[in-house]
Amino acid sequence: MEIKKTPFQFLFANTIRALFRQSAKEFEKQDVKITPEQHFLLRILTSKEESIQSDLAEIMQKDKSAIMRHIDQLEKLNYVVRVNDSIDRRKKHIVITELGTETLNKCEQILNHLSEKNTENISEEEMDTFKKVLIKLKENAER
């Protein structure tokens, strides 16, 4: 298939899937017990003071049951804990543990290495242009 005639959504989706597969393989190879999506969830937890399941589902654009499965898995690994809300007992905040933070840091190192490897033959100028185009595509898609 000729690149100019290939819809960018197809190229972009295939690229994202390839990067996720690469990350998952490297996580497994380095004995990291989580998926790239669960890594993203841990990353969100470190950037927010309080996180409840519905907020996480909205941020990750996933349904609440999918997020709950990820949280259950992360809780089994002792990477997160559920903490009761002091005002509303029905709410549970998801909090990253010290072990979760260590795993997140390991994932970040792995992803930084992969990022360096994957951008090896791409100039800084090309990356800046690519990022600007991605931002514009996102903005256009959200209009």
Structural features, described:
The structure is a single chain. Helix content is 66%, strand content 7%. It has a single domain, classed as Winged helix-like DNA-binding domain superfamily/Winged helix DNA-binding domain (Arc Repressor Mutant, subunit A). A hairpin with a 7-residue loop joins strand 1 and strand 2. A two-stranded antiparallel ribbon has the order 1-2. By secondary structure, the chain is mostly helical. The protein is globular. The model has no long low-confidence stretch (mean pLDDT 91). Helix 3 crosses helix 4.
Structure characteristics:
2 strands; mainly alpha; 143 residues; 7% strand; Arc Repressor Mutant, subunit A; single chain; 6 helices
Topology of helices and strands:
Blueprint lengths: L7 H22 L6 H12 L5 H8 L3 H13 L3 E5 L7 E5 L1 H21 L5 H18 L2
